[in-house]
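Before relying on records like the one below, remember that each one covers exactly one chain. Contacts with other chains, cofactors or solvent are not represented anywhere in the record.
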Amino acid sequence: MPAQVGGHFSCLEVRFLLDISYAQAYSSIMNRLSKEQQTRVVAALVEGNSIRSTSRMTGVARNTVTSLLLDMAEACAAHHDRCVRNVRVRRLQCDEIWAFVGAKKKNVTPEQEKAGWGDVWTWTAIDADTKLCVSYYVGDRGKYSAYNFMSDCANRIAGRPQITTDAHRPYLQAIEDAFGTEVDYAQLHKIFGAPTPDASRYSPA
């Protein structure tokens, strides 16, 4: 079960993710796995192993690993939504993570795009001090997604946070709409270029 420490929530065990109290329903395939098998599969996945390698390491079929992964995702989402509330955050760092479904947007046909293929962005809000993921949102990179993401952040945070984002423009209006004046906000502009030579740095050349 989660424990509240200094206004933040920390998890005592990963195994709670498989607790039936946090999941709406489990597939019959998952119910055939023992707790020990489930724990081995989850441990392999959270260490970054692929579904195929997890299947080889644990002896559990790929389809069963996939079913367990989906059930675990539902359990995690329910647990996060219920427990991460009224969190006191001093410094909140927000960013977007790019990925794609099926294929990159430039390679997607109109029919595939209608089916949901293409680029997708995961918006994340991380407490800089505790590394707690306060909020997340999966969608495009537009202003509608920015508004939904920031509104969810505001609903989970107690007090006045300091928020830092990149220079993505939709953040400006979304943060104002979600937090009003109860926020300290700054954008971090990243400048990319060749590294500047440092005469004091050791070089064997």
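The two ends are 56 Å apart (CA to CA).
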